[in-house]
Each structure stands twice: as C-alpha cells, then as structure tokens.
Amino acid sequence: MQICRFNDNRLGLVDGDKVKDVTSALDVLPAQHYPLPTHDLMIANLPHVREAITTVAKGAKSYALSDVRLLSPIANPGKIIAAPVNYKKHLDEARADPQIHHQNQIAEIQRVGLFLKATSSLVGPSESVTIRHPDRRTDHEIELAAIIGTRADRVTREQALAHVAGYCIGFDITVRGPEERSLRKSIDSYTVLGPWLTTADSVADPSSLDLRLTVGGEVRQQANTRDLIIGIADLIVFATSFYTLMPGDVLLTGTPEGVGPIKPGEVMDATISGLGSMRVEVR
After folding, report:
1. Could you report the per-residue pLDDT of 45-58, keeping only the tens digit for each?
2. 8 φ/ψ sector (left φ>0, alpha ψ -120 to 50, else beta)
3. Residue 133, Cβ neighbours under 10 Å: how many?
4. Half-sphere exposure of 154 (CA within 13 A, CB side)
5. What is the C-alpha separation between 34 and 26, in angstroms, rounded?
6. What's the first-to-final CA gap in the chain, in angstroms?
7. What is the Cβ-side half-sphere exposure of residue 211, based on CA atoms within 13 angstroms?
8. Bridge partners of 211?
9. Mean pLDDT for all residues in the chain
10. What helix, strand, coil percent values describe the chain, rounded to 5?
11. For residue 258, is it left (φ>0), alpha (ψ between -120 and 50) or beta?
C-alpha cells in the first residue's frame, strides 16, 4: 500500500497515476488531549488506518497525482535520525573534496555514529527546498528513508525490520562548512520526504533498491542500497542502543557518491525502485 498526504493535510491512497481521498480513514485515530504524544499518531495506529482505508477507498473521490500538492507522508516525527557517510564511495569523495570536508575529520560511520536533524526541517516534495545561505555551497543528498512503526528499544538484528512501518525517498540537504552536521542539515526545508509512504509489506527487499537523482536532467547520484556500509537492520540496532525509537521516527540511511551543489531555479528528480519518484524545486 502507498499512502500520501496532500493538499490541505488530506490522506490519500495512491493508485497508479491517481490518488484517492481517504481522509475519513483517520477517524479511527484515538482522541488526544494536552500534552500531546511525541510520536506520529497515524503511524502508531497504521494497522487500523489501513483497514479503514481499504473500506473507504471503494467510494473515494480520485484526483490526478499531477494535480495535487504532495506533503511529507509523515506529519509528526519525534526524531529524524541520519547516517553519515554510509556508502564507501561517498566516504572517499568526502575525504578527497575540501569543499565537502572543510578540514573536518571525515571518519567512518562506525566511529562517528548517527546524528539528529531538527523536525522543523521537514517538508514534502511539493514544498520545495529554500536555500538559506546562497553565499555557501549547498548540496543534494538522496537517501532511502525508513519509517519506524512500533516502539523499538535495544532491539536485535533479527527484530529490527519488524519495527519498520514503511519506506520513502528522502533528501538530506546540507550546507557545507565547518559547523557540526546537525546544524548545517537542520535548516528549514532541508529534509524532504516523499512522494508517499510505501508500507513495508510492499517492499520485498529494502537492501536491494536502486537510487537515482538527477538535477536539471543530469544524473548526479546512482547506487543501490546493497552498497550501504551499515545496512538498515544494523542501523536500527545501532540507533536503539542509544535511544528508543517511536512510531513515525525517520531513519535516513545515508547518501551515495555524487553529491553536488544545487542552486535556486534548479529541479531535482529522485527515484527509488518500488517507492516511486518525486520532483523537488530549489528556491
């Protein structure tokens, strides 16, 4: 199943080049009062929401996907966790290019660990990336994003993927410079998720997905998730050894080689096999 959020926070079921408005399926969510939960309610109740979607989709109004404004499929992640330099060839290029490393030590992911991005940096593909520091180099980074579906604390490798609700395409946009990663990557609009959530049961093998990113029609990044230094299950094990993951938390699994600068007016097109494609404008 592929589920999107579109227009004015509507819930959609993706069906080919159409999207069915299944917003009424959200009526199954429990009522909440202050203080609100620090996780995503829809993802926490996804099995019930999916059942409701199946029922209401039969008579739902349809729209052309090309006519809707796609938002992030996850509305309220408690955490956005990211894996730095998790492809060997990207590690090599980061160490070789002074415009990337800025005299920072670029160490292996096993040494530097994961980092967190501000949830305020999250947007959907139709909301665009807005360059905050036009005087500095800002780079694109395509990544597979895994969305946590159930509470996960100190899990084993065998348990890890059972905690994943689904997958989507992610952008981890970064401004280059000497500051810490979390600062440079947490700028408003510098985390893009889309075009929709593909539920885990629809992804046969997340460790064998092709990634492709073009900018203005030029291929910039192209790889397969089999090339990850630390795979998805082991990343979840790593993350949950430090903190509890909750429904809706986002795990960005790392970007392959080919990162490069983007400028206002350019358009990024990203595809991950089985997950769809998304177009994101740069402003």
Report:
1. 999 999 999 999 99
2. beta
3. 12
4. 0
5. 19
6. 32
7. 29
8. 223, 272
9. 94
10. 25, 35, 40
11. left
- The pLDDT of residue 103 is above 70: no
> Within 65-197, where are the H helices?
88-96, 98-101, 109-112, 157-160, 181-184
Q: 272: closest CA among 145, 185, 117, 163?
A: 145
- Residue-level pLDDT at 196: 98
Read off the pLDDT of residues 122-141 as tens digits, 9 standing for 90 and up: 999 999 999 999 999 999 99
Q: How confident is the model at residue 112 (pLDDT cuts 50, 70, 90)?
A: confident
Nearest-angstrom CA–CA distance, 62 and 65: 9
φ, ψ (nearest 5 deg) of residue 204: -65, -45
Q: What are the sequence ranges of the domains in the chain?
A: 2-67, 80-281
Q: What pLDDT does residue 27 have?
A: 97
Q: What's the full length of the chain, in residues? A: 283
Residue found under tokens 């997340």: 206
User: What dihedral do alpha carbons 213, 71, 167, 45 form, nearest 10°?
Assistant: 180
Q: How many CB atoms lie within 10 A of CB 27?
A: 9
Q: How is residue 88 written in tokens?
A: 């060997």
Q: Which fold has domain 80-281?
A: Fumarylacetoacetate hydrolase; domain 2 (3.90.850)
Which residues are registered as beta bridge partners of 80? Answer: 117, 250
Amino acid at 116: L
Alpha-carbon gap, residue 168 to 237, rounded angstroms: 20
> Is the pLDDT score of 83 beyond 70?
yes
Provide CB contacts within 8 A for 9, sequence distance 6+.
71, 75
DSSP 232: H
- What does the block give as tokens for 136? 């500095």
